[in-house]
Amino acid sequence: MMALQTDGGEPAIRAEGIQKRFGKTQALRDVDLVAARGTVVGLLGPNGAGKTTMVRILTTLIRPDAGYAHVAGFDVVKQAQEVRYRIGLAGQQAAIDEFLTGRDNLEMVGRLYHMGRRAARRRADELLERFGLAEAASRLAKTYSGGMRRRLDLAASLVVAPPILFLDEPTTGLDPRHRIDMWDVIRQLVSDGTTLLLTTQYLEEADRLADQIVVMDAGTVVATGTADQLKRRIGGERIDVQVRDAADLPAARAALASAVGAEAELDAGARRVMVPVSSGAAALAAVVRELDAAAVTIEDIALRRPTLDEVFLQLTGHAGADAARGESA
Amino acid sequence: MNTALTPTVHPSALRRLVWVFSDSWTVARRNLMHIRHMPEKLADVTIQPVMFVFMFAYIFGSAIVVPGGNYRSFLMPGIFGQSMVFGSMSIMSAIVNDMSKGVMDRFRSLPMARSAMLIGHTTSALIESVLGLAVMVACGLVVGWRAHLGAGHTLAAFGLLLLFAFAMMWIGTFAAMFLRTVEAVQGIGFVIMFPFTFVANTFVPTRGMPPWLRGIAQWNPMSAVVAACRRLFGNTGPSAAAAAWPLQHPVLASAAFSCLIIAIFLPLAVARFRSVTTR
């Protein structure tokens, strides 16, 4: 019998030259993607970037027009069933059956992985317990809250403890508290060596969870790297000062430059001065002291992290389609 | 990790066949569980036909005269046929619902047998039709309908009805692939189903209809099914010598119509399902 794991060097996910067209829209053009085993890869991009299409190809739901993809060492087109035994997928919509109970939902999924009835039932109970749904296990999923649905959906993707997990925008639509809960759940999931590919529109989410970030826009990969590498590339945090009197701008600029030891940028129209910083809070204190010493009256001062919009502006030369929803922390 | 998984990389043909059955049953069972939680799902095949029975038996029937005299005996086979047609609404809704809610993606990311989705849906729909038919028969017995020609003929009639239901399901399945919402199913369903079940010998003899309409009604597969049932139940079925071929040989004609519909729509539905789901 063949072993489940693939041989040593094979990454969990390897895709090359993936192309996909829907009618007149070229959804993916020549996308490459690699996820080493046991790592978390974040696919970051606005709506319409092609993230979901990529996930659907890797999870065997649709076929690429060109290129090839191996998941767990199996070809997603030619060996789709083999791939399906080794992946879990939780999509953007909670794909649960509203007219079944939570337990019946999970048990059904287990049965469709060809687990025995008793094993499926046992696994369902385990997962319900783990995701805090034990008390709601016998209730119809229709009655679940949004957060509970997401957890049930996630549990359904974990029925066979798949070595490779795909989460498509796992926190979109969740309020901030539930988003943070979900992050904790995801971190626990990957702590046992599961490979995770997650898509997100939120830079912060990719930052918190992903080892590698792949930035996509308009069907192509525009950047790849760790969160730190990307942040350096797009400038990381910066301090943003607005002065009351435009005449103070040169003095403010000099103060910022000397406080952080970097060139400050000027936006005369908005009476603003900006400077990139590496050690945010400490730099902020230094800037305030310098400004005070220079007797500059300030209207506003803030430490800003790059928003998704700025990432896109920087990487693609245009704003992300979903700029308004881009997160700033 | 992944201790729960015992992979069989090359399952035998037999095992794959067993999975087709067990996966289909898992899907069918899940649909039937919906009925337990949501009994109104059965309304299409129960409450509606019951309403029709009482409406026609006691309201319209009081003004309709059929040759042989007993309108309620004449009516019931029509009602049976109509409830088989309405059964296709429920499979349409079920499939559209799965497609629109992302549930289909979950199913398709699982290593289940590909064919199990449609087999499972038609299996549960067929079981629902049997339940509906049982309700209708009970209802018919209450209003005085009887089958007069023995168990063999009676079972043959039920067989033809379920074959017809099965044929209608494949039309419903095919149509479901083009619809996006369950509301659309209701809308389309009624626009198609009312003419289909009314322009026939379902509720009144076709002979009183204007000639052009009578031609359509007599060639409507619905008429053949209903006429076959009237004949097999021994309910007075006026099959005038002038009637079209399907009404002169209703048993053969209804079986042939159903098989023809299945032969056309089953492959169409399967092909459409494949193309919709593997784009």
Description:
- The complex is a heterodimer of chains A (329) and B (279).
- In chain A, 35% of the residues lie in helices and 25% in strands.
- Chain A has helices at 51-58, 80-85, 102-112, 117-130, 146-156, 176-190, 203-209, 227-234, 249-260, 280-293, 308-316, and strands spanning 13-22, 25-35, 40-44, 66-71, 74-75, 87-90, 164-168, 195-200, 212-217, 220-225, 238-243, 265-267, 272-276, 298-304.
- Mean pLDDT of chain A is 85; it is low at 1-7 and 320-329.
- The relative contact order of chain A is 0.13.
- Chain A folds into two domains: 13-232, Rossmann fold (3-Layer(aba) Sandwich); 237-304, Alpha-Beta Plaits (2-Layer Sandwich).
- Chain A has a six-stranded mixed beta sheet with strand order 6-7-8-3-9-10, sandwiched between helices. In chain A, strands 2-1-4-5 form a four-stranded antiparallel beta sheet.
- Chain A starts with 12 loop residues before the first strand and ends in a 13-residue tail after the last helix.
- In chain A, strand 9 and strand 10 (220-225) form a beta hairpin.
- Chain A has 329 residues and is α/β, with parallel strands linked by helices.
- Chain A contains eleven helices and 14 strands.
- Chain B is mainly α and 279 residues long.
- Chain B has eleven helices and no strands.
- Chain B has helices at residues 13-37, 47-59, 71-100, 103-108, 116-143, 150-176, 182-198, 211-219, 221-233, 245-248, 250-278.
- The longest helix of chain B is centred in the first third of the chain and has 30 residues, at 71-100.
- Chain B is elongated.
- Chain A binds chain B through residues 1-2, 4, 22, 56, 59-63, 81-82, 84-89, 91-100, 104, 108-109, 111-115, 119, 123, 140, 156, 159-163, 192-194, and chain B through 1-5, 7-9, 19, 22-23, 26, 30, 33-34, 37-38, 101-103, 105-112, 277-279.
